[in-house]
Amino acid sequence: MKKGIIIQASSRSIGNTSGIVSFLQEQTGYDIVDLNTKQIGHFDYEFKNQDDDFNALFKDIVQHYDVIVFATPIYWYTMSGLLKVFIDRISDFLKIEKDFGRRLRGMQMGVVSCSDEDEVFDGFAMPFEESARYLGMHYKGHIHTWIEKKGISKEVKAKIKAFGDSLTTAQYTNNK
Ligand SMILES: Cc1cc2nc3c(=O)[nH]c(=O)nc-3n(C[C@H](O)[C@H](O)[C@H](O)COP(=O)(O)O)c2cc1C
Asked: What domains sit in the chain, N to C, each tagged with a CATH number?
């Protein structure tokens, strides 16, 4: 089975997205990293952030995992700021220490969004699809999830299970 990591990108560690992430973790056995607990600065062109938490985290991910699942709440129709900053910082590894950036090639990327309702606007997935293409990653798709007053509905659980299965049964080999 491929080794995967779920990058939880909510501005609260315990909330709706974390509920979805826990359920996905039960299905897949993937590890979780909570970006809300990390100190990760914005991208800057002078690479002044080299001592924050991003570099070690990124190197760990590309050396030890085959699958990355971005799990983000929908904030203002798009991914959370935490996740955007994380993805911006991948640029560091396309400019310096490029060998680590190249290790994304052949990895899988999946995306889980979370809001309060069954509605997601067209275009949400585009930055992920195009970023995966640019980075040479296999894009495994996006599912939208939501939390109801009673918790995760049967419908959403079924979506997460199917998505988890599609990630864990992927056929290709990533030769790390
Ligand atoms: C800053 C902010 C912006 C939001 N923008 C949207 C939005 O554009 N569309 C939407 O459906 N929900 C929006 N929501 C609701 C969240 O997507 C929803 O409550 C989500 O489940 C929160 O997950 P969390 O508990 O992990 O933060 C927003 C919430 C916040 C805090």
From this structure: 4-168 (3.40.50.360)
